[in-house]
Amino acid sequence: MSTLLTYDDVVANLTDLPSLPAVVMELLNSIDQEDVDISVLAKKVSHDQALTAKTLRLANSSLYGLQVKVTTIQQAITYLGFQTTRNLITAAAVTGCFPEGQCEGFDDKAFWHHSIATAACAKVLARQIRFNQDYAFTGGLLHDIGRLVLVTSFPQHFARVISYRVAHDCSMLVAERAVLGIDHVEAGLALAEHWNFSDTMRLAIAGHHDPEAPGAGFLASIVHVADAVVYALDLAQVGDDLVPQLSTVAWAALGLDEDAYQHLFRETELQYQEITTALLS
């Protein structure tokens, strides 16, 4: 029985996926708009108490080093800015949106631990090279989101991917392509289209395994390096996957010396603990 999927198969199943809260969709759609009424959006978010609580937990984590405790979304916007707060709301929504236990052998918790660690690492990297930290954090968090699309929409297919990976001792990416004929990058792009992610995020998702591709964009290099660092540090305890091949071009493009990398490793571990507590507990 053929298990090959096409991009169109993935797109056809997107409507069955859990949807983000309407206000989060609005936030994603408003990324490039200058005239957004922030107070109206803050009010809409505050009607979703679970989303608000999770967002504020993250805003008050040491990741943002606020000297005051923020207790409302409006306060978070005042102290952190609209862009950062929007990213925190998106992170809080996305991490709680997908059902767990859909696919035998797939560890949902390990998936999110890896995504959060990559977000933390990408944010620290971005700060070191003076790149937009909010883009880096969100790009790191969402880089593998296509894997959840495949797991949720095609759990039996994906169970075969996991078996193939174990039998052939290859990376998950190679197993996806061999078994499904499509990989989590393509599935992530289908979701990015469906959820109206900005072009910046789409590029990061598209290029995180191949940052040397023409037009991949600098964010893809940041996420690519963060992904590899997190696997190497084994923060997420995803013991069964191989450390992805590191692009020396992406590594060199960041231009960091050994001291900077030592700092990166330390900071990533600290921030990973903080964000995990805020988003997954």
Characterization of this structure:
By secondary structure, the protein is mainly alpha-helical. The chain has 16 helices and no strands.
Short structural summary:
By secondary structure, the protein is an all-alpha fold.
Mean pLDDT: 89
Order of helices and strands: HHHHHHHHHHHHHHHH
Radius of gyration from the CA trace? 18 Å
Record field, number of beta strands: 0
* Uncertain spans: none
Shape: globular
Beta-strand level of the residues, as a percent range?
under 5%
Helix content: 55-70%
Largest sheet: none
Cα distance spanning the termini: 41 Å
**Structural class based on helices, strands and sheet pairing:** mainly alpha
Q: How many helical stretches?
A: 16
